[in-house]
Amino acid sequence: MKPILKLITLGLFLLGCTPEESTSADDRIRGVMADSAMVVTTHPLASQVGLDILAKGGNSFDAAVAVHFALAVVFPEAGNVGGGGFAVIRTEKGELASLDFREKAPLSAGRDMYLDSSGDVISGMSRLGHLASGVPGSVAGMWELHQKYGSLPWESLVEPSIKLAEEGFLITDLGANNINGALDFIAQATQYSPWILKEGGWSEGDSVIQEELASTLKKIGSKGRDGFYLGETADLIVAEMTRGKGLITATDLEKYEAIWRDPIIGEYRGHKIISMPPPSSGGVALLQLLKGAEQFDIKSLGHNTSKTLHILTELERRVYADRATYLGDPDFVDVPVAMLVSEAYNRNRNASIDLSQKTASQDIKEGSVDVIESTQTTHYSIVDSKGNAIAVTTTLNGYFGCKVMVEGAGFFLNNEMDDFSAKPGVPNMFGLIGNEANAIAPEKRMLSSMTPTIIEKDQKLFMVNGTPGGSTIITTLFQTTMNVIDHEMTMQEAVNAKRIHSQWLPDSIYIEPDALPDSVVLGLEALGHGISSRQRNMGKVNAILAYPEGQLEGAADYTRGDGTALGY
Ligand code: GLY
Q1: CB 448 near ligand 1, within 6 Å
Q2: Is 418 a pocket residue for ligand 1 (Cβ < 6 Å)?
Q3: DSSP line for 231-290
Q4: What is the 3-state secondary structure (H, E, C) of 505-523?
Q5: Which atom of ligand 1 is nearest to the CA of 393?
Q6: Please, what is the Cα angle at 418 between 263 and 236, to 5 degrees?
C-alpha cells in the first residue's frame, strides 16, 4: 500500500468509518463523526498534522498553525507562506475574533500600475510574474494567532512541516495534475529552474522533497515572524523581486502587520452568523444573502428547485452589484457595513424581486463582464476537545499564485494584486468588477471573497465552515448554510449537494456538472435566466457541524478533491 493511502487508512481506522459510509441508524449520509475534536483540510497529510497536534494536547489554534505550514508543503497550489488569508475564531468561552492576514500592496504600487499608456489594462500583468505579488501576510498571521491563543511552543508547530518538506511526501493524482497544468506558466514566470519544473511532468505517487522550503520553515520555526520578514528569507524575496522587476522591498516586508478585527455578526433563522469583515467582502455578502433569504420560505420551496434557485440568483445578483460598488479595505475607504447588512436596506433592495421573472441586470446596475475562470484558494476548519473553533481560508489567489518560486527559499509568491480593481469596470480573473473603493493604493489590502465562518445556535458552537472558489466562495457558503438550516441536511449532505453560482455579471447562472435536472433548467430559463454549465466543480468546502449532544461531524468535500476529515 502506498504510504499516503496507509496514512489515510490509519486516520479513518481511528474513527472506524469512511466518509462515504452512513454511520447512523437514520440512513443519512454523514461525514466523519467524533466525540471530541475534528480537523478538516484539503489534504490528508495536513489533516493528520492537525490531528497529531490536538492529540498532543494542543488547542485548535496550535493545530491551525501546524496545518497552515503543512499545507504550504503538501498543497503548494494554495497552501502557503507567500500568500495571506483570514481566520474567524470562537474560543471555548465564546469569545469571538477575526484575524486579517491579507496581503497588501507594496509601498511603490499605484492605482494605474497595470494600465498601458492608453489607459487600458495590460493583460496578465496582475496575474503572472513578480509584479502581481502583494506583500505576504501568512507568517505574520500565524505568528499573531499563536501569540494570542497558542498553547504549545511555536517551534513544535512548524516542526511537522519541516519534516514533510525534508523527508518528502507522495503526491496525489490531483496534486500531480494541478502542478502539470501550471508548469508552462511557472517556467514563464520563474527565471531559473526550480525543482517543480520536472522533465516529463509529475505522476501520482512521485516523491516530493523540498529542501529550500524546509530551510525557510526552519528559519520561521526558530525565529518566528522575523524568520520570514527579516534576515535571509526577506533578502531572498527582495533578490527575487529585483531579478523580476517586482515591487516588494525589505521595508514592505518589515512593515507588514496582521490585524485583529471585530468579526461581522448577523442572524439567520435563530442562528448567530460570525464571519469575516472587510477587507473581505465575504462576511458582508453572506449576511446580505441570508437576510434576503429569510424573507422567503426556502424550506417549503425545496432544495435546488427552479423557484428556490430563482430567488437565490436574484439575491446574489443584487449583493454582487453592491460588492462592486461599496466594498474595499476599511483602513482606506468608508465601507457602509452597517447599512449593507441592515434589515431595512435589504428589504428595500430586494423589493424588486419578481417571482415570475428575472430582473434585467442593467436594472440592478450597469456593467459588462466576460467569464469566471478560476476557483482556487484553500480552507480548513478545526474544533478541539474544549470547543475552541477556528475557520481559516488562505490563498495565493490563483493556483501557485504569480507562479514565481522564490529562489533559495522554495515557496511561491501570491498574485493577489489581481484582486484589486485594476480599472473600474474591468473584470479580474474571477469576472468580478470593482471601482474606486477597491482601487490600488500603497499598503492597501485588496478586496477578497474569502468567507471563513462560524455559526452558533443557542449560544453554542453549531458550525465551522469555509471554502475556496474565488467569487463562488460566498455563494457556496450561502448554499451550504441553507442546506443545513433550511433543508435539514447533515453536514456531509450539505457539502456533497450540487451547487450553482451567479454574481450579477456575467449575467448567467453557473451550474456544476450534472447539477440540475432538465426540468429545473427549463424552469429557470422560463423565468428569463441564462444557464452556463461549468466543466469544473465549485468550491472545496471543509466544514464541521457540532450536534447538541456534543458529537462533531467533519465533512470534507471529498467528491470534489483530496479533502479529508479526521477526528477522535
Ligand atoms: N483571492 C481570492 C479572494 O481573496 O477572494
Answers
A1: yes
A2: no
A3: HHHHHHHHHHHHHHT----HHHHHH---EEEPPEEEEETTEEEEE--TTBSHHHHHHHHH
A4: CCCCEEECCCCCCHHHHHH
A5: 4
A6: 95
Considering only CA atoms, which residue is closest to atom 1 of ligand 1? 397
Mutate to test the pocket of ligand 1, among 320, 419, 445 (most ligand atoms within 8 A of CB): 419
Between CA 565 and CA 41 the distance in angstroms is 7
pTM exceeding the 0.85 threshold for the entire prediction:
yes
281 CA: nearest ligand 1 atom: 5
CA of 519 to the centre of ligand 1 (A): 34
What is the pLDDT, as a whole number, of residue 7?
A: 37
Could you list the active site residues? 377
The set of residues, in sequence order, having a beta carbon less than 8 Å from that of 246 and lying 6+ positions away, is 129, 130, 131, 133, 240, 404
449 lines ligand 1 (CB under 6 A): yes
- Ramachandran sector of residue 400 (left: φ over 0; alpha: ψ -120 to 50; beta: rest): left
Strand residues in 37-178 grouped as ranges (E): 38-41, 84-90, 96-101, 169-170
Residue 203 DSSP SS3:
coil
Of 94, 67, 22, 281, the closest CA to residue 160 belongs to: 67
Q: Which residues pair with 555 in a beta bridge?
A: 543
Distance CA 273, CA 318 (A): 20
Residues contacting 558, CB < 8 A, separation 6+: 19, 20, 564
More confident residue, 427 or 301: 301
| CA of 395, closest atom in ligand 1 | 1
Question: pLDDT of 127-136, one tens digit each?
Answer: 999 999 999 9
Q: Which amino acid is at 368?
A: S
| Euclidean distance between CA atoms 524 and 531, whole angstroms | 8
Distance in Å from the first CA to the final CA of the chain: 24
Longest Cα separation, the chain:
67
Q: From the CB of 397, is ligand 1 less than 6 Å away?
A: yes
